[in-house]
Amino acid sequence: MSENSTPKPSAEAYQQSEAAIVRQTFGGQEMERVPETQAVAAAEREKAIVQARYIVAMQRPRDIDLFRVRLLKNCKRAGFAEAAEYAKPVGGKRVTGPTIRFVESALQEFGNVVPEAAAVYEDDEKRIIRVTVTDLERNITYAEDATIEKYVERRDPSGGEVVGERRKKNGEIVYRVRATEDDLANKTASAVSKKIRNLGLRILPSDIVDEAIDKCAETRRAKVAEDPDAASRRIADAFSALGVMPDDLKAYLGHEIAQSSPAEIDELKQIYSAIRDGEATWIAALSLKRTERGESEAKVDPTADRLKARLAKSAARDTRPAADAGAK
Q1: What does the pLDDT profile of the chain (328 residues) look like in tens digits?
Q2: Which domain does 40 fall in, by range?
Q3: What pTM, to 2 d.p., does this model score?
Q4: Do residues 256 and 324 lie in contact, with contact meaning Cβ atoms separated by under 8 Å?
Q5: Is 196 in the same domain as 297?
Q6: Are residues 25 and 140 in the same domain?
Q7: Is residue 276 situated within a structural domain?
Q8: Residue 127 covered by a domain
Q9: What sections of 141-277 are H helices per DSSP?
């Protein structure tokens, strides 16, 4: 090659350079404009990340048997087992299921699954988050939108911007107060975590999940059997952090908590998990328990008003994200 010669660009490079130039006509004159490269670079970066995920998934496929062994090993840990299952009242019945913490751990052990969340809409009243869970090996994506309203309900609206109110069935008025940044962050984290749990259960093998939940229950019962008194104290302390005192637990059980059977302690642990994760309220759980015992709806607990006030103060004090509160 001579000293003055210049290498000619390849046909592919020429086509790419032509594609990067946009020609527009303005006032009879043809103009050339180079489009914004930042957006193109960002799109290419995201494309590379997605491709890398799928490549790694193909190179390192999951082993279902290994996943089962690892998950069941987690279920033998008392701390994990206690946070693995919830129980909440739905339609006058008690419904149980895997908690957010359980599904998050199961997805980690399952591998090659990507949960993602992105805001798709926002205004002064609400924020909409699209939550997706993708199985990279099967190339299956499940998605749901979580709508987070930008207000919280308070019995005492002092210090907040009241945007509305509603009357409950018992005639009590609760106020809708404009959510603070902390309130909104808590509600968003809780809503996203719940969606990931629900979508994750659509990907995880249901038979292994059921087996793991049974193993967690077995671990909890064994832990209580080792030291029933210590188990009673731990659950009482956990509920007190939520504003539910030992006399409230006595009203639920019908006897002192120290007299509880392992099955009753396990039931309380499941209810605690549901309340901690924002799935249920103590008052709803207590109402269902009374219905199960056949108690009259007209029967009034003399501590009901005090309990409601205490729970309201506890909720106002608690600024932890619902998805992280009480995590083991």
Answers
A1: 444 444 554 544 444 444 445 555 555 555 555 556 888 888 888 888 888 989 988 999 999 999 999 999 999 999 999 999 999 888 888 889 999 999 999 999 999 999 999 999 999 899 999 999 999 999 999 999 999 999 988 888 777 888 888 887 777 888 888 888 998 999 999 999 999 999 999 999 999 999 999 999 999 999 998 898 898 999 999 999 888 999 999 999 989 988 888 889 999 999 999 998 888 889 889 988 888 888 755 444 444 444 555 555 544 444 444 444 333 3
A2: 19-59
A3: 0.72
A4: no
A5: yes
A6: no
A7: yes
A8: yes
A9: 181-203, 206-226, 228-240, 246-253, 262-276
